[in-house]
Amino acid sequence: MNNSNYQVEIDHAKEGAFDVEQVNFDPPSSADREDGISISSFEEDKEDANAKKGDAPTFSSLRKKLGLGAILVFGVAGATIAGVSLHSANKYRYVQSQKSNSLSSDLSLSKSGKAAPVPPYCSKQTCGQTFTEGDKITFKEDLFCAEDWNSAPNEVKRSKNCAITLEGNAELDCNGYTIFQATTLGSDAAVKCDTSGNSRLQKAACELYYYRGICLTGGAKMKNCQVEKFLEGIYVENSGDIKDSTVSQNRVGIAVKDGPGNSTEISTTIVRDNAVGIDVDNSSTGNKISINQVRSNNNVGLKDSDGEFQKAFGSGMNLYGEEIAVKDSEASSNERNGIKIDGAGTTTVDLKGSIFLRNNGRSGLKTDNNNKVGDLDGTMNVDGVVNIYENGEDGFQMNEDTNLNVELKKGSSLIACQNGSRGKQVDIKNNGGGTFGNDGFTCDDTGGDGSLPTCSSCPACPM
To answer: Segment Disordered: which positions (predicted)?
Structure first.
């Protein structure tokens, strides 16, 4: 028999004490025992009604009795370990340590001092797993999905399947490791292949087995992850929480589809080198989107078979919802827009702290109404400084059917300068019904058919 590392848990039910120690010993296999019971699966009942205080030995005395020799269990009824009775108010449980695990769940204590529920261990990390309520998963190494598209069954080829799925209050900590999949078309396969059509055609064009990297549903959380080489790096449906992660080389970095009453939070995360950075589906009505300390830069767009850029791709953030908050974030050097706010109905947009929207191919900040269901109404509140510089077209563009009233809180400013390098565009353009409420705007050029702000002049560039 091979030596194994076992963990001994002693839960003193009456005294409230809890000790965890490690003991090395050579456990008998089921083949060596007459009753065929494996010690790793042995767990005594939690409590004996006749137990008295003092029935259980201290752990130090138990360890002395255990010594370095073998531990033999001769049956469940009346079983003893080195002469110590297991029928008491105390629970003795032997849990084999999974040193080779790639996914692990940490043992934690509740406020009462007793062991909290422990999610199941996995012998190794694999793609295609689903984790549900209460699961807390930690990566111990990179997760590489090696499945081959060419050998995938038809149901897989048609599906928008996920490499890892988290449901409810499940939580994933990638611990800085990367989740990615095999590609046959190069490292940027998910970014540059022609992905028009349904999910099967999209996956076939890129020859990717998994459509999505990490899927969060119903409020699941993830952190410390690097996600690469999927058609959708991270997919959120009906609320989710993403933090401290990097999402790159995907067709869509982070895709969000929320409904009324749901909220998604993305914080301290880098989204770069995707075809589009963050994309909130325009069916996500009544939802809340919170972006905090996020950099969505260098998202390169996607060309169709005629070499034209597809309209939905190339922006740092496409945001849609009833409440949209962006704080201390940047969307720069993207092929199309820095931040595009789209939707219909009443929307509140809060821009807080320092926002940087620079060197984007089209507009730095754009409001639109692509679904044509109704006007985009509401308020855009600026509480901080919004910097919109050197974008190829208009710096801040408000399109038709968008009626956001822009309000700057005391001491705040919106600075749009040196935009329009591609031609006749301006720093601030309004073709909608929105208004600009008070002082604090800086710009040189304005245009459009709607109301326009009174701007202070942009500072001169040094010679």
So the answer is: 17-55
Of 363, 310, 373, 356, nearest in space to 341 by CA: 363
3-state secondary structure of 263: strand
pLDDT at 371: 54
Averaged pLDDT for residues 317-337: 95
Residue showing tokens 């089921």: 30
Q: Where are the domains of the chain?
A: 4-97
Environment class of 275 (CB within 10 Å of its CB; exposed 0-12, middle 13-18, buried 19+): buried
Task: Give CA–CA dist 303/309, Å, rounded.
Answer: 4
pLDDT in tens, 45-62: 333 333 433 444 443 333
* Of 115-129, 308-322, 359-373, minimum mean pLDDT range: 115-129
Residue found under tokens 């309209």: 311
Note whether 385 and 365 are within 8 A (CB): no
d(CA 158, CA 148): 15
User: How many residues appear in the chain?
Assistant: 463
Q: For all residues of the chain together, what is the average pLDDT?
A: 76
Dihedral through CA 249, CA 252, CA 253, CA 259, nearest 10?
-170
